[in-house]
Fold this protein.
Amino acid sequence: MIPYLLAEVIRVRRTSVAYFPWVGVLLALMTIVLSAGVQSAGYISVPFSWQVMYFTGMAAPLMMLMAALSEQRERRARHGGLWWRGVDKRKDRAARLLILAGISALLQVLNFGIVILFGAPLDRGVLAALYCWIGSLGLIGLGALVARRFGMIAALAVGVVWQLIGVVFAESSWWLLCPPTWPIRILLVPVGVEVSGLPIPADSPALHDPPLVGVGLCVLLGVVTCAAAALMNETGEARPVRRRPAPQVSVPHSAPLSTPAFTTASASRQLPAFPILAVVSILRRSGVLTCVVLSALVVVALASWYPADTASGLFSYMIVPLGVGILPVLTWAAVGPNLAHATAENPRFFPAYVATHIIVLAVLAGVTSVSLVAVGQPAGEVLRQLVLWLLVGSVFVLLALALVIRFGMGAALVAMIVWTIVTVLIGGDVLAESFLWVIAPLAWPETAIPVQRFIIAMPLAALGCVVSWYMVRAAGRRYVENA
């Protein structure tokens, strides 16, 4: 088994999966900053209270995404040719799961260990980290199973649904019958909070749970899912590529080389100044148009049937944070393999490709703004929201695109999960009334509407646009040069 583990370590290096432990560092720093900010604002905060962001909002999507990225890597690399050399496929898959479990353990150690270094209780921190790791094993196995059969996006979607079900039923009396609740329920007591993030009360039923029951169920779930992931074979062979016959071109034999018959097509045609239509043509089957239309219909329907704040909040807290992370993933899958060639044909292709993301954001923000004004929202307030949607959304969609180009789709999806949870927790909470509103930029269209805050938010967002543009331009240039 040792050779399989060593081979997997070599394969996982310099992939997006290897960077997952840094999520633990980010979560720990956020816990420290938010806890200090809450206490200075006059609210109660227990040492690990902000870890609720992780185990109630991020754990399942992150762990399943990590497993899915490993499966996607092996599928694209055709397992590095190992399976044609007489290796044991089950041991190869088991080694992949063991390395993922080790990465998860490192993430938990960094996440809780850094907080412990800043004065949090050692015993509770160690216990919470151990429980988090045990709960992650079942998520890794399930993510590998789903990704192997249905792909990475399906695994991420299952992770989100799994997390939502767990949060909804974690404090119910029949949580033992609901596997998504197990990794959450066992952490309520060590962390000392309810699912809502408030300190756990003395009469909470979670305090009377046998501690080893939930842990044992999580271990059982991990063993079952990981064993199934190690034993289950991959899907069938890839579909054969449909080959089209090359066009027949006839040139007179007597024509001299200087005649137009020998003039290449690229030299004779006029390149478009800004090839937006070319980018749109490439993205026709990427799923972007479907997502845009569905998002617009949801916003218009909510604005028509519910209070305007509902439509505005959904757009600010869910559609924009999720959209700016998913949009570059969808477009890059269609454009990325041919970016170097397209840029060689037309150097303006990459700026047009980047601008397409801003156009999509502008269309959705415009539809939302018109819907809000149509139902009676003050035009001045909606205008400020529109400006912030465009500026802040541009910052994050360019940042996500830079992450996709530089580190792969997994990096953008991980960042999307983190900033979505932060946006919902800060922007949709009483903390938005304190100075902590600044650390959730995607919530600014809801929290920075007052003129005093708008004056602060707008230049910061504009500066972020400039920085993110230079980041995505540098990432694109490096990708083209290395292609």
In short: Residues 237-241, 257-268 have pLDDT under 50 and may be disordered. Residues 338 and 372 are 40 Å apart (CA to CA).
